[in-house]
Amino acid sequence: MRILIVGASGIVGRAVLGELGARHDIVTAGRSSGDLRVDITHTESIHAMYEQAGPLDAVVAACGKVKFAPLSALAAADYGIGLQDKLMGQVNLVLIGMHHVMPGGSFTLTSGLLDHDPVLQGSSASMVNGALNAWVRAAAIELPNALRLNAVSPGVILEAMAGYAPFFRGFEPVPAARAARAYAKSVEGAQTGQVYQVS
Ligand SMILES: NC(=O)c1ccc[n+]([C@@H]2O[C@H](COP(=O)([O-])OP(=O)(O)OC[C@H]3O[C@@H](n4cnc5c(N)ncnc54)[C@H](OP(=O)(O)O)[C@@H]3O)[C@@H](O)[C@H]2O)c1
C-alpha cells in the first residue's frame, strides 16, 4: 500500500512509521518536516498536500494540538485551538482526502483516552477526543467508494511521559510501538467506524 502519515515526525507518528514502513510505501507529511508540508488548520494547505501526494491507499493522522489549562483559564479562543487543529484538522483530512484516496482505502485518525478518563487541565482534549470518536463512527457509514474510517485512542504514551507525567499521575503509560499496532489494524484490516482504545 501507499500510505500517507501526517505527523510522522511526532512521538506517535514515528512509531506508526516504524510499524507500517516495514511493509508499505510511506509518504510522510508535517508542518515543518516530512516529504510533504501541510498545515492541517488550513484547508488550502490540505488540498495542496493531496495534489502533491499522488495515489494513496491509506491516510493516517498522527497530529493534532489542544490547549491544556485549568477550566477557569480557558476562554473560547483557547478551546478554538483544539477545535481548529486536532478536531477539524483531522476531519478535513478526511473530507478533502476522500476525493483523493483510492476506492477501498482508509483513513485512521487519532483521538485519546481523555474523553472517558479525564484529567485536570484536560477539558479541551476531552471535548475534542469525544467529538472525534463520535464523528468517526458517524462519518464511516457515509463514506463513498468503500472507503473506511477508524480512530485510534491511545492512553498516555510512554515516550511522552517526560512532559506529560505531571498531568497523568497513576496512569499506565502505553509504549508508542503498542499504540502503533492499532494503526496497523485499522489500515491493514477491514473494519470501519471503530475507535480502537489502546490502554
Ligand atoms: N503523546 C501522547 O501521550 C498522546 C496520547 C494520546 C493521544 N495523543 C494524540 O496523538 C497525536 C500526536 O501526538 P504526539 O504526542 O505524537 O505529538 P507530537 O510529538 O507533538 O507530534 C506532532 C506531529 O504532528 C505534526 N504537526 C503539528 N502541527 C501540525 C499541523 N498544524 N499540521 C500538520 N502537521 C502538524 C508535527 O510535525 P512538525 O514537527 O513538522 O510540525 C509532528 O509530526 C495528537 O493528536 C495527540 O493528542 C498523544
List keywords for this structure.
single chain, 199 residues, alpha/beta, seven-stranded parallel beta sheet, 6 helices, binds NADP nicotinamide-adenine-dinucleotide phosphate
**Amount of helix:** 25-40%
Largest sheet: 7 strands, parallel
SSE order, as H and E?
A: EHEEHEHEHEHHE
Q: Nearest-angstrom radius of gyration?
A: 16 Å
Regions with pLDDT < 50 over 5+ consecutive residues?
none
Give the terminus-to-terminus CA distance.
28 Å
Question: Helical stretch count?
Answer: 6
Bound molecules: NADP nicotinamide-adenine-dinucleotide phosphate
Look at the structure and give the mean pLDDT: 98
The strands making up the biggest β-sheet line up spatially as 3-2-1-4-5-6-7
Strand content: 15-25%
Class derived from helix and strand content: alpha/beta
Note the overall shape: globular
Topology, number of strands: 7
In brief, what are we looking at here?
With 199 residues, this protein is an alpha/beta fold. It has helices at residues 11-21, 43-53, 76-97, 123-140, 161-164, 176-188, and strands at residues 2-6, 25-30, 36-37, 56-61, 101-110, 148-154, 195-198. Helix 1 crosses helix 6 (176-188) and helix 2 packs parallel to helix 3 (76-97).
Layout of strands and helices, then pairs:
Blueprint: E1 2-6, H1 11-21, E2 25-30, E3 36-37, H2 43-53, E4 56-61, H3 76-97, E5 101-110, H4 123-140, E6 148-154, H5 161-164, H6 176-188, E7 195-198
Parallel strand pairs: 1-2, 1-4, 2-3, 4-5, 5-6, 6-7
Helix pairs in contact: 1-6, 2-3, 3-4
The structure holds NADP nicotinamide-adenine-dinucleotide phosphate.
